[in-house]
């Protein structure tokens, strides 16, 4: 069970802890444990973890935990730090929410209804995941870290440590994301997540369309010959031919225009294509 500081929680959450009927233990002189939760520590009042912004917007964290009390307590602790929070109570619900929106970080429990945390983790791409679990076996930790988790926190845990780990992962991800961003005018291409957007609106592209656009953005306002395009994208799309290239370009141009209202790709007769 999680440890969390009681002093920063709302009256509603405090009542929820009390109504659980849990026994209170005084194991620490400056703290009390209620239902496995560290409920008070005077140092928490002065704790404020920064690095809760990415690109000028508040970082969004998804909590995936089927324990409503734990989820609510974590939500309040994180919102106190300025984070935006979304919650899922099963692996299946989390997967559905991820198809609609990408958070900046995920706190993932393992013992979930529907898809378990172990089953959900491989489905999460390019989002840092901190596993929060009562499973303390070293083999569990090692397997999940090697399987894609960015960090592993064992329950019960200290909220100060969790908030610090969240801040560290967001800082790492922000630095990595900056290195992975390519842009041309209002278009943005993320080479890590393979997401293309225009003024924040995602443009869904096929693998071939993405590879073509990436090559053109690497060579802005320069004519790229058809054969060069075919050679450069061959590793990603080996089935693309000169005839099918025209279709892919047509579809790519249409998708960009539908979002931006502009024609980004120009054909240079007999030579190739360019961003203009």
Description:
This protein has 276 residues and is α/β, with parallel strands linked by helices. It has two domains: 174 residues, Response regulator (Rossmann fold, 3-Layer(aba) Sandwich), CATH 3.40.50.2300; 91 residues, Winged helix-like DNA-binding domain superfamily/Winged helix DNA-binding domain (Arc Repressor Mutant, subunit A, Orthogonal Bundle), CATH 1.10.10. 38% of the residues lie in helices and 23% in strands. The strands form five sheets. The protein has a five-stranded parallel β-sheet with strand order 7-6-8-9-10, sandwiched between helices. A hairpin with a 2-residue loop joins β4 and β5. α7 crosses α9. The protein is elongated and about 65 Å long. The termini are far apart. The N terminus is likely disordered.
Walk me through the topology.
Layout: H1 11-19, E1 24-28, E2 31-34, E3 37-38, E4 53-54, E5 57-58, E6 60-64, H2 68-80, E7 84-88, H3 91-100, E8 105-108, H4 117-120, E9 129-133, H5 138-146, E10 151-154, H6 159-180, E11 181-184, E12 187-190, E13 195-198, E14 201-203, H7 207-218, E15 224-225, H8 226-232, H9 242-260, E16 265-268, E17 272-275
Parallel strand pairs: 6-7, 6-8, 8-9, 9-10
Antiparallel strand pairs: 1-2, 2-3, 4-5, 11-12, 12-13, 13-14, 15-17, 16-17
Helix pairs in contact: 7-9
